[in-house]
Request: fold
Amino acid sequence: MEHITSTPTAKAPAERFTGDVYLNPIQTHSDPARLVASLVRFTPGARTNWHSHVKGQTLYITDGIGLVAARDGSVALATAGQTVTCPAGEEHWHGATDTTLMAHIAMLVGDENGDGTTWLEPVTDEQYAAALKSGDR
Ligand code: MN
Reply:
């Protein structure tokens, strides 16, 4: 057993995120479980780049109001206590709304090479504005 009493907060890298995003690792990729879990806090307007996860991802919203959007135009507007799942290989992004912060616990299972995330281009301001308008409730 290991009792981890605190983890440092890191600023998320600008090459993968737009705006101010802060990461606290909960579980880093390691054999045999390969679970990767992080608490991620997005300030208003902040979001990930487009990306996909080799085995999918589960997002549990812990605070605020967030957006999760996929290439097919589907958008989930998710609040604290809600869960959004992203299927394996689906290109998507997640972030805060323009007026409200969002925090989620992001959980995925990696593969033998690492966390299995493929990072893509930034979400444009136009894509972000469109998601804000169309998010489901
Ligand atoms: Mn994701």
